[in-house]
Design goal:
- The protein is an alpha+beta fold.
- It contains five helices and 22 strands.
- It has a five-stranded mixed barrel with strand order 1-2-3-5-4.
- The longest helix has 21 residues.
- It is elongated and about 120 Å long.
Amino acid sequence: MTDESEFEALLRELEKTEQAVAERPKPGDRVKGQVIAIGEEQVFVDLGGKAEGAIDIGNLKDKAGNLSVAVGDELEATVAAVDADTGAVSLGGKHGKQLHGAEELEAAYQQGLPVEGSITGTTKGGLEVRIAGHRAFCPASQADIRFVEDLSSMVGQHHAFRITKLEAGKRLNLVVSRRALLEAERAAQAEALKEQLQEGAVLNGKVVGLKDFGAFVDLGGVEGMVHISEMSLTRIRHPEEVLSLGQDVEVQVLRIEDTGNPKRPQKIALSIRALAKDPWSDVTARYAPGSRVDGRVTRTQPFGAFVELEPGLEGMIHISELGAGRRLNHPDEVLSTGQQVTATVLKVEPERKRIGLSLAEETGAPEAQDDYGQERRGKGGGRRGRRDEAPEPDDRMGTFGDLLKEQMGRDE
């Protein structure tokens, strides 16, 4: 081979090398390749030509810790870094911040940049996190904004962290915080929410805490509280009867109060109940006197039993409408809380939010329904509730105190 031909061959080889360098992926590029090997910590991907990429295995695991790819699968990822000497391509996840090497971790620490890591286990006082092949420690108080009772539930998850401490040596000593990033995100969300956050506003949120007295709802950077009395039109004993953690809810802002506490500057009262349709708005069209209705006994009092006909709508059966011809001392003699009953509508008073009911299948003549205290004949013509046997109030939807006052008035 002549000197000229050797020179041409070298020139062609140089051009190929320069072209390969020019075509080399750059940080931030989206690339596709085929999985060619799976290691303990990394998955290796053939990107075509002589390029090969590696991605931390934690990026490819679901919440349950299961690997989502196998050898031969096609994979698309973001280029996180390219080694200038070897050309090795590091692939990252959704944030594109998979960093390799002490220098890059040091830069992330100094600039407060987020880094991604996989939670590999629990340790005394916190979590063990794997970041770019390095072991890091996340204190329990920094795992989330809210206290995590069972840290083991986070093992296998992949999250972004902020490095709060870095000490170089034979091995890097890393301390990280997930909470720091979450608080920064919430602060930005809260700022964006300011204009919408006012009394009467209807907002979407997520249930993040349940207590005996109510539920805490994250509105997007700001938390409010729904008192148990504002959760449902019906009476409930615990928020868990109608809500669950992580549930998306629509709420209305009732009140906003300044607390003077910099950590929680505002106390926000919310309501789910306020957005529910008032069942009393069209009650007369749905519960005509004489119609038969089904319900559930919610509580009993000496003067009668309350029956839930639908959420937020209760009727009352006076004690004189329970005995089927015999006198009762208390509704508990024939009914119990939680019992399902079928009753007849006697009277509907939407303005007073009252519905009078009877267990009798037939209520007699229409005129007998106008005065609850009048003698009434049940099925079969039997007489019930004579005035000379027991005094009854004109309005059977009254309380026991009303009955007592009426009796005292008669005695006088």
